[in-house]
Design brief:
The complex is a heterodimer.
Chain A lengths: L7 H16 L8 H6 L4 H19 L12 E15 L6 E5 L8 E5 L8 E3 L6 E3 L10 E14 L2 E10 L8 E11 L10 E13 L3 E16 L2 E18 L9 E6 L4 E11 L2 E9 L4 E9 L1
Chain B lengths: L1 H16 L12 E4 L3 E7 L6 E5 L3 E2 L9 E15 L5 E10 L2 E11 L7 E2 L6 E3 L1 H12 L3 E10 L9 E14 L1
Antiparallel strand pairs in B: 1-11, 2-11, 3-10, 4-10, 5-8, 5-11, 6-7, 6-10, 7-9
Classes of the chains: A mainly beta, B alpha+beta.
Amino acid sequence: MKSLRRVPRLRSIAAAACTLLFLAATGHAQSDLEKTLQQFNANDVKGYIQPLADLFGANMNAGMFHDAEVPRTGFHFSFEIVGMGSSVGDNQKKYTLNSPAGFNPATFSTATMFGGKRDSVVDTRTNLKYYGIADGFVNTSIFPLGAPQITIGDIYGTRAIVRLVATPSMKGFPSATLWGLGLQHSISQYVPAIPVDIAAHVFYTQFRFGDLVSFNGTSIGVEASKSLSILRVYGGLAWEKSSMEVKYAPANVTSPAVDITMNGANNFRATIGLGLHIVFFSIFADANFGSVTNFSAGIGFGG
Amino acid sequence: MNKKLLALLVIAVLPLMAFDCITDFSSVTVSLNLAPITGTFPLNPGSGLAYVGITPPIDLASLFDKSYTLTGATLYDITVGTKGEDLGTGSGTVTITVNGTTTTLFTYNGAWTAFNTPQSLITSSLITKNQTGVSALINAVTGRQRVTLGVTGAIAKAPATKDTDFISVSVYVQASGHK
């Protein structure tokens, strides 16, 4: 058990960080991204932004747990900064869009928001032309997310995890607020003979992206870790679900209001990672394998 | 203490700030599907077998988000539909007038009942576009001008009652623009 009195600065830092991160959120003036989305109806926009649901969903459910050792009682507090990144595959740069009714071919491939220039389709009979909804505007092989998190416990072998981050509007993206709350419960306390620490977790995350887009994510899983001096090896299996909800009224008033929910691609992940823990400082990194390959890494203070 | 706190915050938001991968929106071309440019023309008793009609001025700039700078536009469909009693075989010419200059946009001909289900330029041989008129329309869209659609034509049977027979046209344009 570590007393918070022994690390008084951590308490101050954590409290101030939470406050400032809240204050970092700005007003809700519509961003360029939001205005762009409003040009399209539900059918058109879905494929264009589906990769965002996949990649963001995978990020939201990453980096929460890197230690399965949860004592039955005692005081634990740590403040961590976690960075997550989802690998952007070629299949997330293009999608198939319906041509206007009657066009031959009936579908064509064009850029998602992670793709390059928009493509077009030409009707073979009339030579009429129709373009995909927009150029891509995110050019990256890894889609990032960062969040501070606090873990606090331990009561009856249970530890709480809280995530919170807010970012201002920047580069055409709207302001964003992420919060997450979860519990990790020791399984090892019931079966002490097991040579590794085992814990189970449940975690919920919500992310609001301006006025039009919001994400929800849930992760339920088990993790195991083994400490070898300052080194810690950990891994886990988790079922997860993430969804992105998009709501807006299209700029074209003849189109119906858009209200769509898209599920993220990841439903299962296997994690393997490595951590280093020295007194009140720790670093960790892991790889996560599922429909979306994801990486997370971070630093922590406290213990 | 403050420096440490600042450092922590910077690290926390760094991944989100890694938006150098985000293209400047001013260079992102966006397709703007305009609300259809429409005209509904009544055919009434008293004018024999010929008919004419004209729409009120249509402000094309009102059909899309004005905050976009347009770089081009394409026509991707025209539909023609009829409503009312069967007036036999007919034909018509739809024109576009921009700044006082009138050009044929498309023509149509066929049985009145064939158009009861709106016919599409893409799938129907009953509609023929005129490229000069299409160019005038595209220039009017990118120039954010006012236009009127007009129709002249003839049918085989005169309408018997007032305000029951109509010809409706819709012109579908997709513009390209950026912020």
